[in-house]
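Quick start: read one record
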Amino acid sequence: MYTISVIKLKRAYEIPAKEDGQRILVERLWPRGISKEKAEIAVWLKDIAPTTELRKWYNHEVNKWPEFRKKYKEELKQNSQAVQQIKELLKKPVTFIYAAKDTEHNSAVVLKEYLEEE
């Protein structure tokens, strides 16, 4: 059992704020056009992101959203090492940083949901 702090979500292109707490990039690829200094990322957890195959299959097509959520949660169940690593970081306030334009249909939303359900 572990206690999670509040998990916030924020696009990589938004200005970092003190209220973000620890900023964790939860993408397999670095966001285009943003420097590491500007992003103020504390931790980059590439391995917690959806596999390249799943990411390419989904391609941010909203009609695939329900199936993407299901498949990504299955990947997370099989990815215990990365999930354990992120759980350790949840003892303090964190913000999951993602690159997608769609703020409601992206992998960070699913990851937050998965961790809060566990």
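The mean pLDDT is 94.
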